[in-house]
Amino acid sequence: MPIYSSLRPFRFYYPLWVLACLLSLISISSYGSQGIAQYGKPKYADGFSHFDYVNPNAPKGGTLTLPNPGSRSSFDKFNPFTLRGVTAPGIELMFESLAEGSADEVASIYGLLAEDISVAADRKSVSFRIRPEARFSDGSPVMAADVKYSFDTLMGEQAHPRYKTTYGDIKQAVVVSPREVRFDFKNQNPELPLLAGTMPIFSRNWGKRPDGTMIAFDQLAFEAPIGSGPYQIESYKTGKSIIFKRNPDYWADHLNKPINVRVGFYNFDRIVYKLYSDDAVRLEAFKAGEFDALVEYRAKIWAKGYVGSKFNDGSLLKKAFLNHNGAGMQGFAMNLRRPIFQDVRVRQALGYALDFEWLNRQLFFDQYSRINSYFTNSDLSANFDGPRKPTEAELKLLRPLKEKYPRWVPDAVFGPMPPAPSTAAPGSLRQNLRKARELLADAGWTYRDGALRNIQGEPFRFEMVEDGGFFLRVISAYTRNLEKLGIQVDVRTSDFALHQKRMNEYDFDMTTIRFPDSQSPGNELWDRFGSQAAKEKGSDNVIGIQSPVVDALVGEITRAQNREQLRAASRALDRVLWNSYFVVPQWYNPTHRIAFRKEMHYPDPPLYYMAETWILQNWWKAEAP
Q1: Do 347 and 251 belong to one domain?
Q2: Given 137, 141, 231, 359, which is the most exposed site by the fewest CB atoms within 10 A?
């Protein structure tokens, strides 16, 4: 089953820069160097030749052909930074940032467009000196004024609202000199140098007409982006395919010495995306040789679909690659903007109706483990080392919040983290549904006249919305159990674009969410759980959480000065979120399942990576003789 960010399209960040929150970091100890680290020193010293996880001798050339990532079956724009519309896949290949994170360490970045990074002694600002060789795709130099323009635009009214949340603690971008830019911070949030360094940069000339006037940023559609990335758009068929070619004048290819953060990266001359509207057609197209690699997120298809003569003769290969990514949270999310989900007892009851053990056995071929935290598979999880009570560091955060906001801190946070409901022996679905019925009765919902009803006689009924039919078998199993409680669920599926629009406007009762985890979370949590984000269309806070306690703990996470403080704050937040029952938790898999043609080659994977990004960045092709 799907466990990746593009499962919910409105949370797909280009190019996962705010998933560069995967590597949230900052410089405390480094000053005036290429690399900076959040805690201690970065792994790679100045002058390093390349990252350890790449093949520095990977051959360049050939064409990489891929299917549409996730559910996106069409596109209507090239601008990934605005709210409306569906962006073409691969557009992230056209943009770069001042710095880039390393995928084999938790919290460090290294200069890309910038040759030097300096954090002020008071930690209230960070400065970047831009490489004189850095160029945009139109041949113009990357200047400090372009960086300021990018920041100001992303913080403006025409960009996606999430950027205001993500960069909200950055006060301003200041042009110090033509090639030096400084970001001033509102406070000492230790993640801010990272966020400034990994912000996407684009040219001031993007959208300029021949007469010198500008197209409004939110009106940019098929105007070719002017970024500094290694690829340009060669051609496209609206909504069906897009071809990127390597920019022959790509600035990093014309340096006297290869730039270390680009050695072993982007090895293909062309990258082609073909969009398929049907998953079965996509798989058959792969078997027929229409593209080179496919990341599979459905257990049943992985077990039964990737078979045939080409797999038998070795023309096609399949492999599950281990990763150490935090699994984050995936589950059925309830929209707290709906009155029906306001009572925590109701939300908890709905969790008892999901029979994970049956699903894993009957549908998933026992390939999954249960989600047990908002930071699953990470030491930031409150139950990482077992179901235990909070540490003193956690209690130091939780006790004052309980005293100040008693209704927002569940009593259960002070005990061991409760597991997700299970039907494993000696438990059973029957026992779980009894517990659910008791909780619902306590909340005023009882079964009568053929339905679960409240005191006014209104039936318990809600709508489940999804962006395609591939999840229906799971939903059907879940809704059958809800029906045993007298709950009626109306399931609605739609195409990617319509679903994205509904999500942006929070027009749903329940839906499947996927919150990808970070090894060092930070400001992205404001967009995901912050009260202000819940009021802004298109934010990641689809649940609608507006809790002063959650806000306070997210603040503690963003202000953490070391790993111990981060761990305590993250675990405290985990306890509050988990015991508030906003989501019916689902499952995760610590591997990436990739099928590929035998001509495709790859280095050993890094510790932390997304499968699609790894293929784009570090794989290469050796053509058959």
Answers
A1: no
A2: 141
